[in-house]
Amino acid sequence: MIVTSKGKDNRYTYGATFNGVHSSEYGLDVLADKEIGLPDKTKITVDIPYSNNIIDLSDLYGSQAYGERELKYPFHVMDRQDMQKERLYVLWQKAVNWLMAPSHKVGLVDDVDPHWHYLVEVQKAPSWEEFKSAHGTLEVTFTACPFRIKNDYEGNDIWDTFNFDTDIAQFVDFDIVGSKDVVLYNIGLNGIIPTIISDSNMTLISGDTEIDVVTGENTFDWNLGVGVTAIKIVGTGHISFRFYREEI
């Protein structure tokens, strides 16, 4: 849920939702010099003895691994309805406590990219610069997982948010009588463990992997690699796959 507030009369009305609360709640506006850092690839290589060649094992588990990234947000802090130093201190102190409270990565949704979220944590101390006229700048660095995560699951029928440049339509809900061959498409950059929801016991066969699904929600140590995954579903009933695309 995005929480917004008109009470502080934010000039730019541009911010971000962190841990379920919008930055405007604390009189914060994101300034223009925001930086969205990109992750480095994590390369795993082995030298071949007596050779100038190397073996690259970076995608040994199905997809290229990446390191963490940094998102740098400079916030302008001001309450234009109460231009007092005391009010400014209340705002920035509450903002710092809000940002520093989580002890693990939580969701961050940028207003300009509302259909995706990052998993982030403020690990470095924010910096505060105060100006004479009851306003200031709070600079915050979020340490983030390498991938953005789509808010809506793949194959949903929410056409209002469908992007014809980047999204694909696919079936993720199936009625099975006996058996059926299906395919799932992971068009992101990272393997994804799906949640499998079934109203009866079924068996999934994908390559050399065989999975017994029980009634209800199921998760297994089995992921949908990047690209196409072919699955044979054996049983009778309704089954759904829920997974969320991950991209840089």
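Second entry:
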Amino acid sequence: MVRMSRTIKLAGLVALVLLLVSCGGSEVGSTSSSVGDQDVSSSVADQDDDVIKVTVAQAIPVFNFQGYFTAVEEGIFEAVGLEVETVEVPSTSIQQALISGSVDFANTTTVGVINGHSLGLDTIAVAKVCQGFIESVVFSADAIERTGVKPTDPLQDRIEALRGLTVGVTGLSSGTSVSLQVVLNAGGLTSSDLKEVIPVGSTDAEYAGLKAGDLDAIVVSSPVPEQIEAEGLGQTIINMAAGDLAEYAKVPALTLITSREYADENPEAVTRMAQAYLLAGELARTDPDAVKAAVRNRIAPDLDEALFETAFENNYASIPLPDDQLFTQDDFDKMFIATNLIQEFNDSPTVSGVSMDDVMVNDFLEQAQERLGDF
């Protein structure tokens, strides 16, 4: 089988999109779907050729967002008729930025969407950004010496080693905090078994706290664990990206969200965003080298080559492929459990009365798939 080069493959993807968004004729077909009371009906022939400008809130570039930055780097957004501005926003402020109208979309935690709905925030997930919890629990060198834990120990023993430690997360309801609660729950522990959980505000602050000795362990995404190991400051003890807690490997930990109001008023923009995420997943399926180059450039330009290769290999499967993009009831059920784990941790009321249809919308993905056809 002849494998197409990166350039040829990407050109083919872009040409496919441009053809589908510009051609007419009844043979292409049309779809109709709805969000709320808004009818989302269009055909490829009717799609507006004008470029649509959108803003996307995004925390700092880490491997959780490989698909998004691949779409940015490889020109996929432009190919589907979008002009995307990435706005860097702290993970703890992303939902507020969306609700205030400061941005149109956000790449953020699905837990935040579920909890937000229970609080009256009418936001919806319209595509998967990252499947699986892929954070690592990194112990400081001192904590490893004190606990005697090793990365090769049984998972239960590695979780037990967290007892009595001070653990850093970016925020009390952030993705890192969600991952910590999922890890603890898997081992039969709760936050009360730790000395303290400290929300330090950012990944940079987690790194600094571990380096200074203020934190015994941190929950963080690549490439930070690899950087810490390279500097001899600590070691990854629990690696969800590499297969620890495999039962969560496919859950939509991070999703592309927007407000229901924006989706009702701008269905074409949302559908084009869904197209872009499908195409990023297709590029991941067919041309890993293209994705690797994009991730290298956008997320980890300065990371040691060997460490980058390890991080990329561990995290690559987190990019949702086209066949994995549609939300399922199992996706919702597992994320609902994770939502209430974080609620209990924060001494907040547990979430109830929220259904999959309230927060996960497949309409735009289905319309995007109709436009793109079979890969």
